[in-house]
Amino acid sequence: MINRRQLFRFIRRMYYWAKTDPVDEDLRGWSWDRPPVKPRAYLGLGVYEVAGKYCPTRRDVWLRRKAGVRPKSSKTMLVGRLMHEAIDKATKSVLRGVVQGKKAWEIYEENQSIDPSLKGVDDELRQLYINIYKSTLITILGELEYEALTTNSSLQMPLFTEYRVDGSLIGLSSNLSVDALANGVILDYKFGEARDFHKLSIAGYALALESEYETPFDYGLIIYVSNRGQRIRISARPVYVSNSLRRWFLEERDNIIEILLSDEEPPVDNRCKESCPFYGVCHP
Ligand code: SF4
Questions:
Q1: Up-side HSE of residue 117: CA atoms within 13 Å toward CB?
Q2: 52 touches 258 (CB < 8 A)
Q3: Residue 227, pLDDT above cutoff 90
Q4: Most confidently modeled range among 122-131, 229-238, 273-282
Q5: Do the strands 231-240 and 219-228 form a parallel or antiparallel pair, or are they unpaired?
Q6: Residue 201 CB coordination number (10 Å)
Q7: CA of residue 210 to ligand 1 center, whole Å
C-alpha cells in the first residue's frame, strides 16, 4: 500500500498535468446525454470488459456475452481475486475498529492473526494472501496513527474499498465496483505485468463516478502488487484522466458495443497466449 504523503505527491504531479490539459466539458461523465459520452446502446458493460484489452480482437467479450462461454479459471485470475479480497478484508477490519472508537494498536492486535480458509488454494498462495493482508493492515494503521498524533484527533478512515458506482448512464453496469477511493483519487489494484491499457480502467470509473455524482474525478493510481519470495512489492503509477484517455475509453466502449450488436464473430487472434481463459475454446 502507499502512504498518504506519497498519495499527495502523486496528486501534485497530476495537478500540473491537469493544468496544461484541462478536461473538456463534453468528455465529463455528466455529459451522458450527448455524444461522445452517450453510448449507442446500453448493455451494462463491466469496466473490465471495456478496459481489459488482453484479447486484441475482443473475441473474449463476444464469447462470454454472445456464445455464453464461461472463462476457464487461471492462476492469474485466482491471484488477482485473492489480492483484492486480502486488501478489502484488511481495510474493512480497520474501518470496523475505527467506527468502534478503538486505538490503532488495539485494531492491530485484534486483527493481526488470520487463518483464511481458502478453497482450492495452495500454501504459496495462502501465504501471499496473508502477506498482502498484513501489509495493508499495517500501512493503513500506521497512516491513521500518524495523522491522529500529528493532528491531535481521533482515527479517521481515509479509504473506501469496493466502492459501488452506477455506470448505467454511460452504458456500463449499474453495479460497478471501484477497488478503492482515497481523497477523491481512484485506486485500481493490479497483480502482474504492467500494461498501458490498465489506465483505461481508471478512465472508466472516473466517467461513471462523474455521471453519478456530477463531480470531477481526474486522478487515479494503479497500484501494482507483486511478490518476491516472502516480500510484497508495491509500485504505483499515477494516471491523469485526460481528454485523450477519456476518448480512448469511450472508443473502446463503442467498439465493444458494435461487436456485440453485430452478428459477426470476431476472429481468433494469432498472438494468443495459453494463459488466456478462452485459449481452449479458440484453439481446440
Ligand atoms: S484465445 Fe486468443 S482469440 Fe481467443 S479470446 Fe484469447 S486472446 Fe482472444
A1: 0
A2: no
A3: no
A4: 273-282
A5: antiparallel
A6: 23
A7: 33
Domain extent listing, the chain: 4-262
CATH number belonging to domain 4-262: 3.90.320
Nearest to 206 by CA among 234, 235, 248, 236: 248
Query: Would you call the peptide bond into 36 cis, given omega within 30 degrees of 0 as the criterion?
Result: yes
Find the mean pLDDT for residues 134-159. 77
- Give Cα separations from 174 to 45, 51, 142 (angstroms): 9, 17, 35
Whole-model pTM? 0.87
Cell of 23: 478536461
Ligand 1 centroid–CA 62 distance in Å is 10
- Measured in Å, residue 256 CA sits from the centre of ligand 1 at 15
Beta bridge partners of residue 240, listed in sequence order: 219
Give the chain as a 3 state SS string: CCCHHHHHHHHHHHHHHHHHCCCCHHHCHHHCCCCCCCCCCCCCECHHHHHCCCCCCCHHHHHHHCCCCCCCCCHHHHHHHHHHHHHHHHHHHHHHHHHCCCCHHHHHHHHCCCCCCCCCCCHHHHHHHHHHHHHHHHHHHHHHHHHHHHHCCCCCCCEEEEEEECCHHHCECCCEEEEEEECCEEEEEEECCCCHHHHHHHHHHHHHHHHHHCCCCCEEEEEEEEEECCEEEEEEEEEECCHHHHHHHHHHHHHHHHHHHCCCCCCCCCCCCCCCCCHHHHCC
Pocket test for ligand 1, best of 72, 272, 273, 275 (most atoms within 8 A of CB): 272
Tell me, using a 6 A CB cutoff, whether residue 157 lines ligand 1: no
Q: Map grid coordinates 506519497 to a residue.
A: 6
Interval between CA 272 and ligand 1 midpoint (Å): 5
